[in-house]
Design a protein that fits this description.
Helix content of chain A: 25-40%
Number of helices of chain A: 17
Largest sheet of chain A: 7 strands, mixed
Number of strands of chain A: 19
Strand content of chain A: 15-25%
Oligomer: heterodimer
Strand order of the largest sheet of chain A: 7-6-15-16-17-14-18
Structural class of chain B: alpha/beta
Number of strands of chain B: 22
Strand order of the largest sheet of chain B: 8-7-18-19-20-17-21
Number of helices of chain B: 18
Structural class of chain A: alpha/beta
Largest sheet of chain B: 7 strands, mixed
Shape of chain A: globular
Strand content of chain B: 15-25%
Shape of chain B: globular
Helix content of chain B: 25-40%
Radius of gyration of chain B: 22 Å
Chain lengths: 509, 527
């Protein structure tokens, strides 16, 4: 194996694979390294109890944008649209919102005729707004400094897409993006349970409550690629949660990328303000003039790089990135599924926005919610092979569990199990095993700074041209040859391979 | 009796209504201002609530009054005289204090005592905020362009705005973006470490809003309050001699001198409309006044839902106004005192009594005050901004006696069970009890107290839900969205009917900018 490459890509997730494959297609000798023993650790279903497997971080697989699929020359994985995009379960009451908006409207009418009548228009509007984000996300982040014609032209296209929303749509988009989800949903709906069903998506992985400005943006972000009519769940892949990354891996290998797993990059070497290579944890030195890091910006810029090469102001900006992980997971192996509708999609156990806000309050003071917000998905309804015959896996996604609260596994599991039992009283007796993933474990096992699955909160000051730090949203970092291509870069988490693709394009420019 | 005829009628004698009237009169329009109350000023009034004691009942400090208005209307000649409010002292829970003095070096030494790091950071922070304020200031005097329009004038406006932002340079543009979108606590966390400092600074980000220091969007309000400008000096807040009512009176005097007529106790019932055109107003006493131009300085809810028949308006506008957020969150307690309060952290009479005392010991204190309000209660331990105007302007109280103004947050308009006398008393007691923790002799000095809830603000001034800015200063309610997407340029769908209140761009505070911009638009349309 030569120890000299044109480019080293750090991290073999969707972004790393896409970046490596793109560079290889343009004739570069590429090395892809990952500290895990296998590729794409996040998207693989791992055994958490004998015979039970799960990929808790891929319950929502994300969106594979056409630009990435085109670049890789693959088809979108064959997808199944769940019947319900989100359901709310409360003691003695469930509301399941079908992706079919007429069916959802009917279900909603039993709570509020007004809301049922508004539903179809509402979901169409949300869809149009997230559709605009879809087109924006497949372009380099626009910025005030954009002067090159080549960079302006695609933005003119984005501007045209914006105008295509129509006058009312444009104004609505500008109005809605900074809004708190609660304000928007209270304007739209009368029924608290309908508001809560939609609002849960707006606080996903954020240390913000539904009353916080910018949560509408978060909702729209995670609706990119979702089927029409959905307010939450995207389609899932028949071939498993890693269907996309397996396909991307195939392309990467076919294009001649050298792949080394089991060895993490521990340092990016810099000489004269330019990248000269990387050092792996076995002390092996690889020489390369280009490094694309898809691990989070804090790890890349504060740990992998010697800070002497960076301007103090830039370092301060990186330190100021808010990660603030507050999502945890509990994986349950059960011998009987809870009797809830829509478990192949997302079932939220929070029935009103006030409860959601109260769950957030504790996190403001660094503590875990007394009554956390819990969402359930039975992944074995999608992939039955992930559990022994007749048994199931239920994943609970839990907020708010602040990283710094240092919550113990037992305390977390106990709080979540009792929250579920509050809605499904028989649940605890069906549990055969459980396995907990706290934010601390997310940091330790997946290398996520502060356990933030977002690689940096999707707050309005940390998206688009502000991601990862203002002025460096075009993926090139201030050290020549160093690029950031992970979820911490534009366009952020859940947009599979796009940051990697944009970073590779920046390398090739 | 045939209706009295004017060129222009201004509804509401608040500062914006008076400014608009002065500019219209200056252009030769025969203008009348109609004020419902017996005093002019709206929320900028001085009243003798207790014999010998004068209070700026609602709005109590001034910083944003536009210099071009002061110049154009020659306001100093009509009595405008701003006395500087030089210091802010924050009592801390450990008995110490944090002070910011008028003298920059003194403030730096004081901050160094608490945190050398923050004293260092403050220099750069102050510089950046100054630049930010400079960057935003031109927008305050700018007609908001419509980003969805392709009309030449809007495109020109957008290009001008784009050019303005480009001229800032990337660094300041990014800093501005952060200010517009972040929470004040997060923004300040990037700069400072000393909690009481962050709390006192974030307090200015929450004034008048229903946001906590950790709510995104509060950093912008911080800037809004940073833009104060007196005699060209940024960040300076001050008192008007004679209270904020004297500002209103100065503008009224200027308007009269320019030929405007001003009537008090002249409540407008509705705007008369014929064939889609405003024709005048009908007063509550049955009188009718006619004019081809009718300007409402009231907030958007009153302007569009009360004064005219909403059925005559486009449905989009009515929807926007209905969902426009007011949510008053602040109250006032005005006290007549027999002597001066003695603050434990700084005993005796000193220069601190000539400035503001901020009850904002920690960010968590403020955030918890907000938590109470979120769920429909007034804060048990509220944020308070306390000033003693009689220390600077002795005419406000009899010799040896004093008036104290306590601005209080949070007191939600929508309070559980609704506001009534018992709840007002409980609110006033919570305020006085909390201040007494820092100034134990306060209760023994009180000769008279006036407690004002958001419900009182609405009842007395007419500001919907008691919102002191005539609508929240939230990003989705600013600039070309204030108060509604297509109607942010002071015009309304009814020909001849205009808006000029704080519910329009650039918003609240004793600024006068909406009144001036509206008058300019009206005069342009009339040409």
């Amino acid at each position: 194996m030569p120890s000299r490459f044109d480019a080293v890509v750090i991290g073999a997730g969707a972004n790393g694979l896409t970046a490596a494959a793109t560079l290889a297609k343009h004739g570069q000798q590429v090395l892809l390294v990952d500290g895990a023993n296998a590729l794409t650790p996040r998207s693989r279903a791992l055994e958490f109890a004998p015979g039970f497997r799960c990929a808790p971080l891929m319950v929502d697989a994300g969106w594979a944008p056409p630009a990435v699929l085109r670049e890789l020359g693959i088809n979108a994985p064959s997808a199944v649209v769940p019947r319900y995009s989100v359901s709310v379960a409360q003691p003695g009451m469930t509301l399941a919102l079908a992706n079919d908006s007429a069916a959802a409207a009917d279900a909603i009418r039993s709570h509020s005729t007004h809301d049922g009548d508004e539903w179809a228009v509402f979901v169409t509007r949300l869809r149009a707004m997230s559709g605009f984000l879809e087109s924006l996300y497949q372009l380099p982040a626009p910025d005030i400094d954009t002067t090159k014609l080549g960079e302006i032209m695609p933005l003119v296209g984005a501007g045209r897409k914006f105008r295509a929303l129509g006058r009312a749509g444009m104004m609505e988009m500008l109005r809605v993006l900074p809004m708190p989800a609660r304000d928007y949903l209270e304007d739209e709906f009368q029924s608290e349970v309908v508001r809560a069903a939609v609002g849960a998506g707006a606080v996903r992985d954020m240390r913000q409550g539904p009353r916080s400005g910018g949560t509408m943006f978060n909702l729209l972000h995670y609706l990119t690629g979702a089927p029409g009519g959905s307010v939450r769940a995207r389609a899932w892949w028949q071939d498993g949660p890693d269907a996309f990354t397996r396909a991307a891996e195939g392309v990467t290998r076919a294009r001649g990328v050298t792949i080394r797993t089991g060895h993490a990059a521990v340092r990016v070497l810099v000489r004269d303000h330019a990248v000269s290579g990387v050092v792996l944890d076995d002390a092996d030195e690889i020489f390369a003039s280009t490094v694309v890091s898809t691990v989070d910006p804090a790890h890349t810029l504060l740990h992998l790089v010697d800070p002497v090469w960076l301007d103090p102001q830039f370092i301060r900006a990186v330190r100021n990135i808010r990660f603030r992980g507050c999502t945890a997971f509990v994986q349950y192996a059960v011998d009987k599924l809870p009797d809830l509708p829509g478990l192949d999609g997302v079932v939220t156990l929070t029935g009103d926005l006030t409860s959601l806000e109260r769950a957030y309050d504790a996190a403001k003071y660094g503590r875990m919610s007394e009554r956390p917000h819990v969402e359930l998905t039975a992944t074995t309804l999608r992939w039955p092979s992930h559990a022994p015959q007749g048994k199931h896996v239920v994943v609970a996604r839990v907020q708010y569990v602040p990283y710094e609260a240092g919550i113990s596994e037992d305390a977390l599991a106990g709080a979540v199990t009792s929250a579920i039992a509050g809605v499904v009283p028989g649940f605890p007796s069906t549990v055969l095993h459980h396995a907990v993933i706290t934010p601390e474990q997310l940091e330790r096992n997946y290398g996520l700074a502060e356990g933030a699955v977002t690689h940096g909160e999707l707050a309005l000051d940390q998206v688009l041209f502000m991601r990862p730090v203002p002025g460096f949203a075009r993926h090139a970092m201030p050290i020549r040859g160093l690029y950031l291509g992970g979820a911490g870069a534009h366009p952020g988490p859940g947009v599979l391979g796009m940051a990697g693709l944009l970073a590779a394009k920046a390398v090739l420019r | 009796m045939s209706a009295a005829r004017y060129d222009a009628i201004v509804i509401g004698g608040g500062h914006n209504g008076l400014v608009a009237a002065a500019y219209l009169a200056r252009a030769g329009k025969k203008t009348v201002v109609l004020e419902r109350r017996h005093v002019l000023g709206g929320a900028a009034v001085t009243e003798e609530i207790f014999p010998g004691f004068k209070f700026s009942v609602f709005s109590y400090v001034v910083s944003l009054l536009r210099p071009e208005i002061i110049r154009d209307l020659d306001l100093p000649r009509h009595g405008l005289q701003i006395l500087p409010l030089e210091s802010t002292v924050t009592p801390m829970d450990n008995g110490d204090y944090l002070a910011a003095w008028g003298d920059a070096d003194e403030s730096r030494f004081e901050l160094e005592r608490h945190s050398p790091h923050d004293a260092e950071a403050m220099v750069e922070f102050g510089r950046l905020m100054h630049h930010m304020a400079m960057a935003v200031k031109p927008i305050l005097g700018m007609l908001p362009p419509d980003p969805a329009s392709l009309s030449p004038s809007d495109l020109k406006g957008l290009l001008k705005l784009g050019g303005h932002f480009r001229s800032l340079g990337a660094e300041r543009f990014h800093a501005l973006h952060k200010l517009m979108t972040m929470s004040s606590a997060d923004y300040l966390d990037e700069w400072f470490e000393f909690d009481t400092l962050k709390a006192t600074k974030s307090a200015s980000g929450i004034i008048g809003t229903f946001l906590g220091p950790r709510s995104p969007g509060s950093a912008y309000v911080l800037l809004h309050h940073y833009m104060g400008e007196i005699d060209g000096a940024f960040r300076a807040w001050g008192f008007q001699r004679g209270g904020t009512g004297a500002i209103s009176n100065a503008i009224a005097s200027a308007a009269r001198a320019l030929g405007a007529e001003i009537r008090t106790e002249a409540a407008v019932e509705r705007v008369t409309v014929s064939g889609g055109r405003a024709t005048g107003v009908a007063l509550a006493n049955g009188d009718e006044l006619s004019a081809p131009i009718v300007v409402s300085s009231l907030d958007p809810r009153r302007t569009f839902l009360d004064l005219v028949d909403p059925k005559a308006l486009p449905a989009d506008l009515v929807t926007d106004v209905r969902r426009y957020k007011f949510r008053g969150s602040s109250g006032k307690v005005n006290l007549a005192l027999s002597g001066l309060p003695d603050f434990t952290c700084m005993p005796g009479v000193g220069p601190h009594l000539r400035g503001a005392v901020s009850i904002s010991p920690s960010v968590e204190y403020l955030e918890r005050a907000y938590d109470d309000a979120k769920y429909g209660e007034f804060s048990r331990h509220p944020y308070m901004d306390i000033v003693i105007p009689s220390m600077i302007d002795p005419g406000m109280a009899p010799p040896g006696k004093h008036v104290m103004s306590i601005f209080v947050q949070y007191a939600p308009f929508q309070i559980n069970g609704g506001w009534d006398d018992a709840k007002r008393d409980a609110f006033g007691n919570a305020v006085i009890d909390t201040v007494s923790r820092y100034a134990p002799n306060l209760k023994s000095l009180i000769l008279h107290k006036q407690v004002i809830t958001p419900a009182d603000i609405e009842r007395i001034t007419g500001l919907s839900e008691g919102n002191i800015f005539a609508g929240e200063l939230a990003l989705q309610q600013l600039f070309f969205l204030r108060p509604s997407a297509q109607w942010a340029k002071y015009a309304t769908p009814i020909d001849g009917y205009w808006q000029c209140g704080s519910g329009t761009h650039p918003g609240g505070g004793i600024m006068g900018a909406p009144g001036r911009l509206a008058a300019q638009q009206i005069l342009k349309a009339a040409r």
